[in-house]
Request: fold
Amino acid sequence: MTQTITVEGMTCGHCEQTVEDALREVSGVTDATADREAEQASVDGDADVTSLVQAVEDAGYTSHA
Reply:
């Protein structure tokens, strides 16, 4: 299953990589792709959306489902 969450505050490719890395650390995530221009991240797997949002916020960005 693919979920999309909003991620605010990404300004460069490094930011995208940081968000992707944080999301991939969440249990149940098989892949993650961040897009700073769309202000979104797409996440594959069966992780709980609350865990995804928390991982992004812990990485220093604003997020919501």
